[in-house]
Amino acid sequence: MGIAATVRKFIATNGLGMALFMVLGVSFWVLVLVVLPQITMVDFSFRPKLPPAAIGGPQDVYTTANYEYFVKGNPGNPEGWNRVDVTVFWRTLVAAVFVTVFNFVLCYPVAYYMAKVATGSWARLLALSLVVPYWINEILRAFAFRIIFGDAGLINTVLKTLGVIDVSIDFIRADVALYAGLGYAYILLMIFPLYSAIESLDKNQIEAARDMGSPWWRIHWRIVMPFAKQGIVSGCTMVFMLSAGALAAPQILGGPSSLWFTQIIYQGFFEYFNWNRGAAYAIILLVSCMAIVLGVTKLVGGKAGEIGR
What pTM did the predictor assign? Predict the structure, then answer.
């Protein structure tokens, strides 16, 4: 059902006054909490860092210095570019892609089982078991993962008890805990879009393919996945964007050498008090993630509107 049809149905059911109230409320929410903050961030990113007394003065002019710093670093940098920030930026994007692919591979079978195999109370119990752990705060879940993957944590203790290893494996330094924590944090955002899309697929199409001798992998590749394309695009988009913009999990689960780009943005805002450079870095990350999402969506034959639907 399209947006226009939804609005007409809502007006017919609840009256014009309630519909106007809802539209105004949503418009206010989007304008004040989404559009205006983003415009302010863009404005900050093109201005130099100045003391409060100089803001609005002759030095307060638009400049691309904050964006140039991302590439070149300090003016006296003999290498001519900012190696640390650029490296961390690309590593963050690659890691977010890895987390997204990992989540899809993990969640697709679960979503398919919930949608087409599980029935009745077992399906409801399975859905409830997925939701209940997320009643716990994200930060507490991250600390739980740090305990599980720590030197004296559950995994190392079990491996030592079984005699598999003699010395603890440093899962934190190897970023295993970080990737596992990020993957777990956004499982629901992948499973439920997939479940919603697969659940509406006519089971007769799957049965017909089986009767014609099609193997299970071809059924999923040629029937289920193309039909669930909107759910796949939506789930992957949310997981990728949130993974690239994560802060709590990298702060808690990241090793000494696993700096995340959002941590550099955080340092710019709250440690160096350079809101202008922090805003520029945030805009760079946002635009890059949007470009990747739209590019991949177009590559797989989808449309940007499918993300919203």
Answer: 0.83
- The H or E element that residue 264 is part of is helix 261-270
Q: Where are the alpha helices (DSSP H) in 164-260?
A: 176-185, 187-199, 203-211, 216-219, 225-227, 229-244, 248-253
Tens of pLDDT, residues 254-281:
877 778 999 999 988 888 888 999 999 9
Rounded to an integer, what distance in angstroms lies between the CA atom of residue 72 and that of residue 85? Answer: 10
* Cα distance from N-terminal residue to C-terminal residue, the chain: 9
**Do 91 and 175 meet the contact criterion of CB atoms below 8 Å apart?**
no
Report CA-CA distances (Å) from 136 to 99, 131, 133, 192, 212: 21, 10, 6, 19, 47
DSSP state of 259: -
- pLDDT of 126-171, one tens digit each? 888 888 888 888 889 889 999 999 888 889 999 999 988 888 888 8
Torsion angle, CA of 195/197/29/248, rounded to 10 degrees?
40
Between the CA of residue 61 and those of 46, 55, 58, 68, 69, what are the distances in Å? Answer: 8, 9, 7, 16, 17
Q: Which two structure tokens, joined as six digits, stand for 65? A: 């210095």
DSSP state of 74: S
Residue tagged 């697969």 (tokens): 198
Other C-beta atoms lying within 10 Å of the C-beta of residue 228:
26
Cα Rg, the chain, nearest whole Å: 24
What is the assigned CATH class of domain 67-308? mainly alpha
